[in-house]
Specification:
The structure holds 3 protein chains of 3 kinds. Chain B is of the alpha/beta class. Chain B is built from 5 helices and 11 strands; from the N terminus they run βββββαββαβαβαβαβ. In chain B, the strands form 3 sheets. In chain B, strands 9-8-7-10-11 form a 5-stranded parallel β-sheet, with helices on both faces. Chain B has a 3-stranded antiparallel β-sheet with strand order 1-2-5. In chain B, 43% of the residues are buried. Classes of the chains: A mainly beta, B alpha/beta, C mainly beta. At the A-B interface, β1 and α1 of A face β6, α5 and β11 of B.
């Protein structure tokens, strides 16, 4: 079974990189244009890395791999990341 | 560090975390265990307690054959130290100071934990916000926080228990999966909805809520999966 | 390093010299997936090989099954550290599929239904080292393990054995795949523990 989770599971890994919570940040899918908060993405974690996909079209929004000495982040599936401040 | 038995397979870990910065109801922590040879394993656990100084309660569901939960439930001794990171997550949270809307909580199994933090935060804040909890369990002996939920229902918390496999004697609702009749249509002031449980449960409940007329933008979900336990 | 947790052992990591370094033995078959499981009707399924000149060879499902098959028994090593030994497969050797393809390419980019990609040197697909596998353990390959057909290339970490394989592009220049472009090792030899870039 390939269950997915939601973007809440990205909170810890993204906070480790950026030091803030990014699950309330907004994304927009480059595939279908659907807007979603990071927390609302479909996230696959039973994999060599974490893959977050659009719930509308399954396009990959974000990928994260944690190696022993670095975090690799690919954000090319979102046109922008809107991070709420203040 | 102390533990409390909730059901046959669920334990509450009571932690004292010096310097804990506080948290919002619904947030989680990452617990990291490190073996003597440097091997590490990490799992996320929901905080079930409201902000209360250095005091933290986590709900741990025992995963038989798992790597972390059996250790936390059975291998841990009172007073042992454990590495905690958090609080984590800013989406699936309820803050009594900023939210006045009614709240509908829908939990499946151990998905009750972050919802319980919200119920407890409501009481701790002496909030009058209308709360309704629909809590799906397999059988009566699987109800986590049973006594506390009974006590709180006298305090303006509306609790509906849904038994999926075995209903208690005398129950008017036969055992069965959660359905639209358990959730109810939004009436009057529409609630903020928080749904937490296994992926399939969250999926079907969120679909039902949308079908009942709830605004998708006011449905927040937290799915948890069969991680390595 | 963090202080260790008293009494915590973690899963069995006993030094077993029959396994590549850092691996542990498992007897079940964990399902790893970076996305939803694609469902491909067999009457629409095809496998293609495209050369660097743009020449495309296609096999339908029936054509693939009509080719001579082999039944390799191989060990699997996943980069997430589990290994599974003596697994039984049936499929068509890449030697059969690539045998009369005219190419000067040194590299291959494997593409899957669902969008997954992985790259490897072309020579690693040849000489009896790789198959398009469609049966596992005497049964049709289940979709969660890559059915109807997956690449099977057991001498590299399992992420190279692309599930739901759809085709192979032969390339003059190497092109990193899904995980190879995000920190994982470009080649991925489990016996040299090439998990991450720089290993």
């Amino acid at each position: 079974m390939t269950d997915y989770l939601d973007g809440n599971v990205l909170a810890g890994p993204l906070r480790e990189v950026f030091g803030v919570d990014l699950t309330t940040a907004g994304t927009r899918c480059v595939g279908c244009g659907q807007a979603a908060h990071v927390a609302e993405l479909r996230v696959f974690t039973d994999a060599p890395g974490i893959v977050a996909r659009c719930s509308g079209c399954d396009n990959v929004i974000m990928r994260l791999v944690r190696t022993p000495d670095a975090a690799w982040l690919d954000l090319r599936g979102t046109t922008a990341l809107r991070v709420p401040l203040g | 560090m102390d533990t409390r038995t909730e059901t046959a397979s669920a334990r509450t870990l009571v932690l004292d975390v010096p310097g804990w910065p506080g948290h919002l109801a619904g947030q989680h922590v990452d617990v990291r265990l490190t073996a003597a040879d440097g091997y590490t394993a990490q799992r996320s656990y929901s905080i079930a307690s409201p902000a209360d100084g250095d005091h933290l309660e986590l709900l741990v569901q025992l995963v038989p054959g798992g790597e972390v939960s059996p250790y936390l439930v059975e291998g841990f001794s009172i007073g042992d130290a454990v590495e905690i990171r958090g609080p984590i997550g800013g989406w699936f949270v309820w803050n009594p100071a900023t939210s006045g809307e009614p709240v509908l909580l829908v939990g499946g199994g151990s998905g009750i934990a972050p919802l319980m933090a919200m119920v407890r935060a409501r009481r701790a804040a002496a909030s009058r916000t209308p709360f309704r909890l629909v809590y799906s369990v397999r059988a009566p002996d699987q109800v986590i926080y049973a006594d506390e939920l009974v006590r709180q229902s006298a305090d303006g918390l509306d609790v509906t228990l849904v038994h999926t496999r075995l209903a208690p004697p005398g129950s008017t609702r036969p055992a069965g999966r959660i359905g639209v009749e358990d959730l109810g249509r939004p009436t009057g002031s529409a609630p903020d909805c928080f749904v937490c449980g296994p992926t399939g449960f969250v999926e079907s409940v969120a679909d039902m809520l949308v079908g009942l007329g709830h605004d998708p933008a006011r449905i927040r979900t937290e799915r948890f999966g069969p991680s390595g336990g | 390093m963090a202080p260790f947790t008293p009494g915590f052992l973690g899963r069995d990591r006993s030094a077993d010299t029959t396994l590549p370094p850092g691996q542990y033995l498992t007897h079940d078959f964990p399902v790893l997936s970076a996305g939803p499981t694609p469902r491909i009707p067999l009457d629409r399924w095809e496998f293609t090989v495209m050369t660097e000149a743009g020449v495309v060879r296609r096999w339908s499902w029936a054509e693939l099954l009509a080719l001579p098959s082999e039944t390799p028994t191989v060990d699997l090593h996943c980069v997430t550290k589990w290994s599974k030994l003596s697994t039984d497969w049936e499929g068509v050797s890449l030697d059969t599929l690539l045998g009369d393809v005219d190419t000067a390419a040194d590299y291959a980019l494997v593409r899957s239904y669902g969008g997954y990609t992985t790259n490897l040197p072309l020579e690693d697909l040849l000489d009896g080292k790789a198959w398009i596998a469609y049966r596992y353990d005497g049964e049709e390959l289940p979709s969660e393990h890559g059915g109807p057909a997956r690449l099977l290339i057991p001498h590299l970490y399992l992420w190279k054995s692309a599930k739901w394989v759809r085709g192979i592009e032969l390339l003059i220049e190497d092109e990193p795949g899904f995980w190879e472009s995000l920190g994982y090792h470009n080649y991925g030899d489990p016996w040299r523990e090439q998990r991450y870039q720089g290993d």
